[in-house]
Amino acid sequence: MISDTRINMNTLSRFRWILCIVFVLSVCGCTLLRNPGPPPRYFVLSPIDSPHSLSAHTDKKETRRVIVGPVDIPSYLDRPQIILGYDNNQLIVSEENRWGEPLDHAIERVVAINISRLSKGAFEACPFSQGTSLEVESAPMRVNICILSFEPKKDSEVELDVLWCLAFRGQGSKAFERHKFFSVPLSKATVQSTIDAMNVLLAKMSEDIISELAIVP
Q1: pLDDT (0 to 100) of residue 54
Q2: DSSP code string of 62-128
Q3: C-beta contacts of 78-84 below 8 A and 24+ residues apart
C-alpha cells in the first residue's frame, strides 16, 4: 500500500510539473504573438523637386498629353518588401522595410511627374493606373516601360536596366523602343540611401524619355 501511494504521489508530482511547463510555454507563445517585433516601416519613391535638377529641356510650345505605363516589373520585385540586393543568386529581402504602394504604380507615378516637371510644361503626363479609360484612349502618346532589373548590386551602386517604348494613338505597332542602362553610386548601405538612388535613376530615365519625346513631330 505504501509503495502504491508513493508511486501515485510521484506520478501526480510529474503531472503537475508537466502542467506548469505547458502553462509557461503557452504564456511565452502568447507574448510572442502579441509582440512579433517592431512594426514595418513604409517608403515611397519620389519625383524630383525642381525642374532644374537635370538638363532635360524642350522647345515645344504646345502642351502634349502622354500616358506613362503600364509598367512591367520582374516577379521578384513585385512584393511589398524592399529588395536590398542579392548575393550569390539569393535575394536580400527586408521584411521590416516595405513599399507604401505597388512598385509598378510607384514607377508610373514618379516618371509621369518627372516628365511634366522636366519638360517645363511641354508635356502633361498621367500614370496609366490613375488615368480614366477616356484619358488613356484619347492620349496621343503612350510610354510603355518594362523594368528588367532595379535594385542594388553589391554594396556600391544601384542599377536600372529598362526597356521602354513609345506608341502613338491609333497605331498598333510601336513607334520606337529603347533599351537603357543607368547606374548611380550607393552612398551608404541603408534603405534610405537605396531609395534615394532609385529616385535619381528614375529621374535619369525620365530625362531620357523627354529627349526622345522632344524630337517627335
Answers
A1: 46
A2: S-EEEEEEEEE--GGG-SSEEEEEEETTEEEEEEEEEESS-HHHHHHHHHHHHHHHHTTTSEEEEEG
A3: 78/102, 78/103, 78/104, 82/43, 82/191, 82/194, 82/195, 83/151, 83/152, 84/151, 84/152, 84/189, 84/191, 84/194
Amino acid at 43: F
Give the model confidence (pLDDT) of 159-187 as tens digits.
Answer: 999 999 998 876 555 677 899 999 999 88
Domain 43-213 listed as CATH 3.40.50.10610? yes
| 123-127 and 64-72 beta bridge pairing | parallel
Query: What global pTM score does this model have?
Result: 0.77
Tens of pLDDT, residues 125-165: 989 888 777 777 777 888 999 999 998 886 688 999 999 99
Distance between CA atoms of 114 and 159, rounded to whole angstroms?
Answer: 19
